[in-house]
Write a structure and sequence with these properties.
about 210 residues, five-stranded parallel sheet, binds cytidine-5'-monophosphate
């Protein structure tokens, strides 16, 4: 049986960096599930298709290939915004969750990060982490990333977007963002990536010995 690590949390909490590091250290496959929503959104935007038609969005989600998802291509702010609109559609979620579950079965182990991994996609994951940070810290990180990527950004509007994205992710009816009952909470507001990794590593090592 494979060993699955589920990592959830709001946008820009640091779960992507943490997930990649964990996957690299343990030699596990990694899927950033946000990219599946982003790729679906970008395919619709590129084809000039509407973002509010569930049947069309479901069809695009069903055709999605997991190989070749690239954060650099999908990073744009408007793609993330469009993704979070599609993420409220049950048919889109069903299609993407099916692909995510088949990825989670890969040997010897997998790390999946997103919003509903511990609660919906992999409820039996061996380890569940819920990575969070204050909205202000997350907006600051997002802002710094956008500036570093050469995008123009205004801190106040990034902060408003982070709060709006949280509301949409936490408030939706289907698979809202919330910690699983058995998730370990990691607040990265005042913790660097190295400290967060060490905390995660202690939890994972205990589970691997079981
Ligand atoms: O994490 P990222 O910003 O790339 O995700 C984009 C959007 O995709 C999120 O705002 C969220 O609405 C949606 N998403 C989701 N469930 C996941 C991963 C992402 O609903 N497991």
């Amino acid at each position: 049986m494979t060993f699955t690590i589920a990592i959830d949390g709001p946008a820009a909490a640091g779960k992507g960096t943490l997930s990649r590091r964990i996957a690299e250290v343990y030699g596990f496959h990694h899927l950033d599930t946000g990219l599946t929503y982003r790729a679906t959104a970008k395919a619709l935007l590129d084809a000039g298709l509407p973002l509010d038609d569930e049947t069309i969005a479901e069809k695009v989600a069903l055709d999605l290939e997991l190989a070749g998802l690239d954060r650099a291509v999908l990073a744009k702010h408007e793609v993330g915004e469009a993704a979070s609109k599609l993420a409220v559609m049950p048919a889109v979620r069903r299609a993407l969750v099916k692909a995510q579950r088949s990825f989670a079965d890969r040997e010897p182990g997998t790390v999946l990060d997103g919003r509903d991994i511990g609660t919906v996609v992999c409820p039996d994951a061996a380890v569940k982490l819920y990575v969070t940070a204050s909205a202000d810290v997350r907006a600051r990180r997002r802002y710094d990333e956008m500036i570093a990527a050469g995008e123009s950004a205004d801190y106040e509007s990034v902060f408003e977007d982070v709060k709006k994205r949280d509301e949409r992710d936490m408030g939706r009816i289907d698979s809202p963002l919330k910690p699983a009952a058995d998730a370990h909470l990691l607040d990265t507001s005042k913790m660097g990536i190295e400290a967060a990794f060490q905390a995660a590593k202690s939890i994972i090592d205990v589970a691997l010995k079981r």
